[in-house]
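Everyone, carefully examine this protein record:
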Amino acid sequence: MLCAVVAALMYAAASVLQQRSAAAEAHEHSLRIGLLTRLVQNPAWLLGIAADVAGFALQFMALSRGTLVVVQPLLVCGLLFALPLGARFGGARLHRADWMAALAVCGGLAVFLTVARPATGHQNVRVGTWIELLVPSAVACGVLLVLATQGHRPTRNKSVLLSAVAGIAYGVAAALTKAVAHQFGRGLPAVVDHWHVYVLVGVGVGGMLVAQSAFQAGSLDASLPTMTVVDPIVSILIGAFAFGETLSFGAGRGVVEVVALLLMCVGVFGLARTTAVQRLHG
C-alpha cells in the first residue's frame, strides 16, 4: 500500500508539470504524435515524465503484490498531495471547503476498502477474457474520441471527454501491468514471450498522447478529476471481472460501497476546484 501511495504522489506531480507544458502548445497538435515530439523538448515536461516513470515503477511493485481493486483507488490520493503543494508554492490558503473535500476523499476511500474486502483473486486470465475486456474498452474509447473531436477548438468538454479516454486506457494498462508483473516473477524471458507487454506499451503510449491532449484542451480542474475517477472505477470492474477480485456485497455492503465511491468522487471534483490546486496551473 505504501508503494501505491507514493506512486500517487509521483503521478500528481507529473500531471501538474505535464498540464502546464501541454497547455502552452498550439491546439492543432492535439491527438497527434507531433504533440509529443514538441513536448519532449520542454524540460518541465521531461521532469513530469521522470515522475511518471517513478510512479509506474512503484505501481508495478504494488500490483505485483496487491490487487487492482485496492491499488488503483489508492492512486486517487494524488489530489491530496496536490492540495498542500498548491498552498505552499502558490501562496494560497486552505479553506474549510478544501479540508472537507480532502476528508470526503479519505473517508470514501477508507470506507470502500474496509467494507469491500476484495478477494485476492487469481493471476491467470484466459485470452477470451482479455478479448472481452479489450474490445469493449476500445469501443468506448473510440466513441468518446469521436465526441471529443467534433469541434476544432479546445474546450472544457473536450478536455473532460479526452480525460475519460485516458482514464479507461490507464485502467486497462493497470490490468496489463499486473499481468506483466506476474510474468516478471518468472524471469524476463517469460515477459518477452507473452503479448501482454507489447499491448501494454501500445496502450500506455496511446493513453499518454490522449492525456497530454486533455491537458492541452483545458485546465487541471477539467482533466485531472475525470482521469482520477475513471481510472480506479475501470480498474475495479476489471479486477472483479478478469482477475476474480470479488467484492463483498452481503448484508447491504454493496450500497455502502457505492455510496463510499460516490463520496470519494465528490471529494475528487471538490479538490480539483480548490484555490490551492488552481494555483498550481494558474
